[in-house]
Amino acid sequence: MADQPESGSLIHESRDQMESALIEVLRTEARVRALGRQTDTAAAAVTPAGDTRTAPAVIDEVETVKEKIDLREAYAAQSRAAGRLALVTQIFEIGCSQKSEAAIYFQLSNYLFRSVSDIDGVPGAQDCLSQMATALYAYFHVSLDTENEMQVRTAWQCLESVLRELGRNI
User: How far apart are CA 136 and CA 119, in angstroms?
Assistant: First the structure.
């Protein structure tokens, strides 16, 4: 992808994860549809003598394969990737729309945490928020360079671990 920085930005990485999850869902759905067609074909198959005993065996085999294809897991992975992309996109929007580190910190805390007790309940959460506010301010208001992108990525890893500690499924 020529429009990405060589290191790959956090938002591009999140988008790529979402695209990969979507592709996996489409592949899984296609496999399930193909197995459904096999089941239909097997159910309609009748030997010249009218013997339908082979159809149930084929149908059972197809159903066994279908059970091994976990479409629910593919959808869950897609949902997690979409949620992460939405979260990262909103964090970037906060970073570029606010004009000070303090404003970024305030907006991030309101967006990411349900209450002050959430922030206070996880050791280091305030530091992670502060680190992210500083990194976003530098990235969007000082320079969109690789060094500032890496600071955003590092701060995101810290915030992501805090959110996971709170039970968020990212």
Answer: 19
pTM (2 d.p.): 0.74
Full residue range of the structural domain in which residue 55 is found: 8-88
**Residue 89: CB atoms within 10 Å:** 13
Query: Which alpha helices (DSSP H) does the chain contain, by range?
Result: 10-44, 54-68, 71-97, 101-112, 116-121, 125-141, 146-165
Same domain, 84 and 146: no
For residue 12, give both structure tokens. 């591009």
- How many C-alpha atoms does 50 have within 13 Å on its Cβ side? 0
Verify that 111 and 145 share a domain, yes or no. yes
| Structural domains counted in the chain | 2
Q: 3-state DSSP call for residue 166?
A: coil
Query: Cβ distance 94 to 111 under 8 Å?
Result: yes
Q: What is the pLDDT of residues 10-19, one digit of tens each?
A: 989 999 999 9
CA angle 10, 15, 16 (to 5 degrees): 95
- Packing angle between helix 71-97 and helix 101-112, nearest 10 degrees? 150
pLDDT at 151 over 60: yes
User: How many angstroms separate the CA atoms of 145 and 153, rounded?
Assistant: 12
Inter-residue contact 47 to 55 (CB < 8 Å): no
Among candidate residues 67, 88, 109, the one where a domain is terminated: 88
